[in-house]
Amino acid sequence: MDLRNIAIIAHVDHGKTTLVDALLRQSGSVRDNQQMDERAMDSGDLERERGITILAKATSVEWQGHRINIVDTPGHADFGGEVERILSMVDGVVLLVDAAEGPMPQTKFVTAKALALGLRPIVVLNKVDKPDADPDRALDEVFDLFAALDANEEQLDFPHLYASGRSGWADETLDGPRENLEALFRLVLAHVPAPAQAARRAEPFQMLATTLGADPFLGRILTGRVEAGTLKPGETIKALSRKGDRIEQFRVSKILAFRGLGQQPIDQAEAGDIVSLAGMAKATVADTLCAPEIDTALPAQPIDPPTISVTFGINDSPLAGRDGKKVQSRVIRDRLMREAETNVAIRVTDTPGGEAFDVAGRGELQMGVLIENMRREGFELSISRPRVLFREESGQRLEPIEEVTIDVDDDYTGPVIEKLTGPRKGDLVEMKPAGTGKTRIVAHVPSRGLIGYHGEFMTDTRGTGVLNRVFHTWAPHKGPIPGRRAGVLISMENGTSVAYALFNLEDRGRMFIGAQEDVYEGMIIGEHSRDNDLEVNPLKGKKLTNVRASGKDDAVVLTPPVKMSLEEAIAYIDDDELVEVTPNAVRLRKRFLDPHERKRQARAAS
Fold first, then answer.
1. Tens digits of per-residue pLDDT, 413-430?
2. What residues form DSSP beta bridges with 398?
3. Residue-wise pLDDT tens digits, 533-549
4. Considering the entire predicted model, what is its pTM?
5. Is domain 488-544+554-573 given the CATH code 3.40.50.2300 in the classification?
6. How far apart are CA 270 and CA 1, in angstroms?
7. HSE-up (13 A, CA, CB side) for residue 596
8. What distances in angstroms separate CA 196 from CA 5, 90, 132, 458, one per listed residue?
9. What are the φ/ψ torsions at residue 257 (nearest 5 degrees)?
10. Domain 197-290 falls in which CATH fold?
11. How far, CA to CA in Å, does 604 sit from each of 223, 416, 522?
């Protein structure tokens, strides 16, 4: 069967997964009477809750005697490690661009990776049926983006379609019949070349492992594209590391191919096809699976280095162990090492003492997703404030700079520009109208200046602004950047919070807790209205007396507390604070110091 391998790439929420749904339906891979959830490829709980793709996933459709392997990729740069690996498996990409928003930061990120590999893109202008769509402007911006990314002449001569993934149609012209996706199927077959590996079927078997999975019955599963040869279940192959060192030799127990929404066992894997193999015990991502006579590993795509680091530690608060079952540092370390094995964009290192672990990754969202998955698995953790990773080159200290694209109402452009270019040391690159009373702002801002900024940004724009960011370059260190200005309210007692005490503390600042919640000494219960930290007593009850007076017994009405999400809490804390994460709670607290450290700090202060 004639074969094509393509990846669908786009910015977050430009409609990749919805388009794949329509391709599955119209190709016949999913029966008309078969139950299929919306955004079927987003199978993870977090993916469904947040509406984003986190893990790259493959599927396969058949159309008029041709098989098309389709890879749905993440759109957020924090999960760029997935994109970099997956693009090495395909021969073409379908770039989806929102006809109203045009190319966005993540569009630039994934497109740069595809163009660097020499892939020729097909551009699909999606959501052209939106009221504010401007497909001609979006198309011009895509061409400008390709030119800025040094695309060659073949890549600049890209075909394009107008589409609506939700309505399930794509046409060559804007006033087309708008009936189905036949134009997209035809263009993929005509524009994307068949795998060059198909001509190497007579050679010994070779495959580069791209993703790692697990099955309760089959065990470890590695997925990748077969670069040469053929393979049948029961044959013996070996695994080589990136350097060519032998890792293990094993017998292939099962070969799985993508068929529609699932995977099916097949009798033979052939060069050019994307398959999953089972039977290995040690082989992992970026290893070469090959015939026993092969001694050279296949080249693996280099992965961009991490830009931020977060410390994962045990939960040593007085409330530790009440919610979670996995609280030991050994168990936390094993889980982080498993994550680093499957996610090549994450790096885990032990800290002195062995009670905490530095986890380096691409961004706060990637860290937040990892922590959220661990808390749902029953872990209890203490999380530090994210730290930016620096580089040293030629005796100069470099820091990561991010390109920030903001769409904001015209009325709020002043505060946004002032915050980015002032204390956060950003440089304004572009400012232009974005239609319907909005302005688009593009700025280059140090990563340090963006940690904790999103909440402030939403306040400044009254919740109407949209902020997107992507790594831009390394630049010389820009000097100190001030952190959070407000202090915090810290509990000085252990016990259960009392409404009467919280009511009297509301003049001091906004509260993070409500009445009848467990608190302990050192726990942060609110934000101070001034810039210093203040120890308060949230357990102080009303003094009782047998003298009654008018107005003394009025009901206490509390202002609803501010409940932070996990990402908001991690971005909010300061360097001397931690986030306590359990399956049922997210709390903020000061770092607990051992007695010797307290004495040392007291001596230093005096």
1. 888 899 888 888 889 998
2. 391, 476
3. 899 999 988 777 776 66
4. 0.77
5. no
6. 11
7. 0
8. 11, 11, 42, 49
9. -120, 150
10. Elongation Factor Tu (Ef-tu); domain 3 (2.40.30)
11. 57, 39, 21
